[in-house]
Amino acid sequence: MQTEIQVSESLEKGNKDDAVRIVNGLATANPGRKEPWIRIAKLHFDATDYAEAIVAADEALKIDNGDRTAKSIRAVSGLRVAAQSLADLRNDAELKGNARADATGLAMTMRDILGEDVLVPPAELEARKRREARARREAALAARPPVVRSRPQPQAREAQAAAATGNPFENLK
Question: What's the whole-model pTM score?
């Protein structure tokens, strides 16, 4: 409880580093507990220090790989890092131009950085194509109006014969 008060006071003073240091001490003293790591991840996330938030969330997930808070912090932080990276690349002078030229320049840059000839391996590409085709089929089926099938009606002559004779077995002769 005392530690939480110290963390709150540090944050009120605008000193995130002290708050992280205090919670880091808790994490060191309690290596089997995920809560200090999640608190650290939240502190970094709130300070828009997404790389550190990812690292702290990963530490929490090492202790409890099912923790949704840690997974959420890691996912959103990763997306924000990716978005910033894409924005930085978009602003790169070499990538100015139309969308196709931008995409081509970006792909070339990524291949150079990764040292790969292909950005998406063929197996992944085929799997993605199958998933997209399945999704299109399911969407098309969902868009169709439901088919209403009616039961076949008994023939009028047979119904009349049974009614005229009063014998329900007349149709079986």
Answer: 0.51
Report yes or no: 34 and 64 within 8 Å, Cβ to Cβ. Answer: yes
For residues 38 and 30, give the distance between their C-alpha atoms in angstroms, rounded to a whole number: 13
> Cα separation of 80 and 20, whole Å?
21
Q: In order of start, what are the domains of the chain with their CATH numbers?
A: 2-91 (1.25.40.10), 92-140 (no CATH)
* pLDDT, tens digit, 9 for 90 and up, residues 99-125: 667 677 777 777 777 677 766 566 766
Whole-angstrom distance, CA of residue 148 vs CA of residue 5? 66
Place of tokens 């992280």: 20
Angle at 127 between CA 123 and CA 130, to 5 degrees: 140
